[in-house]
Amino acid sequence: MDERDVWRSVDPLGEALHLLRMRGAFCCSSEFTAPWGLALPAIPECMMFHVVTSGQGWLEVEGRDRVLLKAGDLALVRQGLRHTLLSEPGTSAAPLFDLPREILSDRYEVLRHGGAGAMTKMVCGAVRFDHPTARHFVGLLPEVIHVAAAHTPDPEWLHGTLRFMAAEAEALRPGGETVVTRLADILVIQTLRAWLANAPEARTGWLGALQDPQVGRALVLIHRDPARDWTLAALAKEAAMSRSAFAARFTQRVGMPAMQYLVHWRMQVAASLLREEDAGLADVASRLGYQSEAAFSRAFKRCLGVAPGTFRRDAELRGGAS
């Protein structure tokens, strides 16, 4: 298979979804009896997901229209957003951490709450991402993604995944935390796939650019090898376009020129390395193609507004406070 055949098989959007690997996941099986209400706090850098397995409930996020979640529906709430789940609008909501919960493992628990009325069962969870592509992807999503059961091609996969997740959490076998996290991967990715297939906004901006044959190819190259000494001419050649046509198309689809995006992406990768690893600044600079720490530091501060050393210290302080 020659290089052109390899490129024809590349799916830039699929590759971005593939990189939605989670650093950790926490799940809660909830049994609510009406009237009930649950207030969920903002959890920095965490996306929340909610799956209704039976019954129904309302999802409310400040500043947005409330959403009715029915059996089989999935919802994602972008990181850092407080929200509530309610049996009916106007019901008082108890703070999550004020309620007693049955802890099955470090990553799974059972919550029972409410009155004596109709029951609603849900699986709720919080997930975190570490790869810079995943962080960027998630940052572009709407605050709430709601996928109705009617838009789920095969609802049985959902119930099977949830049953497997619960069984794995209760068994407490070696590797159970990894299994639960990977199953949460599947839930979130399947939800995003359903949203991408139906949402008009997924056809615009960076997400839309990933689906453009030429621009998507260039984005994958930058994401795979940000340290390479890319030029506009080199990217245009890989996209099989003239330099001027590629430059115009990239800017139109992505919202910034290709060389600006390259620097922006390098700094996103650098931020991830500084946040997650103990590598020195000189090592991070070298891994991203910079010949000197000073040149890297100038680019980082110009892009993110803070020096890399300060960024790392602030990240460590936030981590210590969580």
Name its key features.
322 residues, seven-stranded mixed beta sheet, 12 strands, globular, disordered N terminus
Strand order of the largest sheet: 9-10-1-11-3-6-12
Uncertain regions spanning at least 5 consecutive residues: 1-9
The Rg value, from CA coordinates, equals: 22 Å
What's the total helix number? Answer: 13
Structural class: alpha+beta
Mean pLDDT comes to 83
Q: In this structure, how is the largest beta sheet organized?
A: 7 strands, mixed
Overall outline? globular
For this structure, the quaternary state is single chain
Question: What proportion of the residues form beta strands (DSSP E)?
Answer: 15-25%
> What distance separates the N and C termini?
49 Å
- The run of helices and strands is HHEEEEEEEEEEEHEHHHHHHHHHH
**Helix share, percent:** 40-55%
Question: How many β strands by DSSP?
Answer: 12
Which helices and strands occur, and which strands form pairs?
Blueprint (H helix, E strand, L loop, with lengths): L2 H6 L3 H7 L3 E12 L3 E4 L5 E9 L1 E6 L5 E4 L3 E4 L5 E4 L7 E2 L5 E5 L2 E7 L4 E11 L2 H8 L4 E4 L7 H17 L4 H23 L6 H6 L2 H12 L7 H7 L4 H12 L3 H19 L4 H7 L5 H12 L3 H14 L1
Parallel strand pairs: 1-10, 2-8
Antiparallel strand pairs: 1-11, 2-7, 3-6, 3-11, 4-5, 4-7, 6-12, 9-10
Give a structural overview.
The protein contains 13 helices and 12 strands. It is 47% helix and 22% strand. A hairpin with a 2-residue loop joins strand 9 (101-105) and strand 10. Helix 4 packs antiparallel against helix 5, helix 8 packs across helix 9 (243-254) and helix 11 (281-287) packs across helix 12 (293-304). It has a 7-stranded mixed β-sheet with strand order 9-10-1-11-3-6-12. A 5-stranded mixed β-sheet has the order 5-4-7-2-8, with no helix packed on it. Mean pLDDT is 83; it is low at 1-9. It is α+β, with helices and mostly antiparallel strands and 322 residues long. The radius of gyration is 22 Å and the shape is globular.
